[in-house]
Amino acid sequence: MILHHKHYPGPPGSPLLILHGLYGNQGNWAPQARELARDHDVFVLDARNHGLSAWAPSLRLQDMADDVTDTMDSLGLARAHLLGHSMGGKTAMLLALTRPQRVCSVCSVDIAPVVYPQAATTVIDALVDLDLAGIASRSDADRQLSARITEKSVRDFLLTNLLRTESGAWRWRFNLPVLAASFAEVTGWPDGLGAYAGPALFIKGQRSDYILPAHEPALRAQFPQARLEVVEEAGHWVHSERAETVVQLIRQFLGALPAC
Q: Which of 97, 139, 166, 258 is the most exposed place for a label (fewest CB within 10 A)?
């Protein structure tokens, strides 16, 4: 599948692909993409079943990695740096492990190459249970979601995906039934992938529990060149909460590498 994307033109010769997380879209990374385009030719992709990319019956990590290579082929990119948050980070890591010849480096934002067996389903359950036919406004949806999703910043992020059709009905920008059915796949991780020998950067939000000390052996076994940076006073959406710090870390990491 060729994914919808936005291009932020930058210097040729060192392309950077940015992959958003679950429930997101390419617009989530617009401010950071503009900054990173000072040094790289940047493409920000909508994952399948998200944003303006096509809907499909699955959200398998391998399918999403294949979508990235299909999109690279359509753009004429033999290789690229990959930057991904959460689900996008897993997609980037999987592509690096299975097709290392296509990847110059990997930057994974607040996600490790592990199974998350006890991943909270609070958000996806609340979205599924929200009766879109019974809400009158986005603020009405926010009030209903607040009973189960207490963090307003998370609700605000989710509600950017709530759209009103010409008929006045509400719908989600993402394919919610497939997201719900595929949640275990997105939070899982395949065995036996070997190791990616290229450069890798992992960025963790200090308050997030997505990269824990218990995850580091698997992280370093699969990405032996990995560097881990912790961003203070940040949670899982570290690139949004501490955008300037995250962009600086990425620029420093990529700036020390040879042209892609």
A: 166
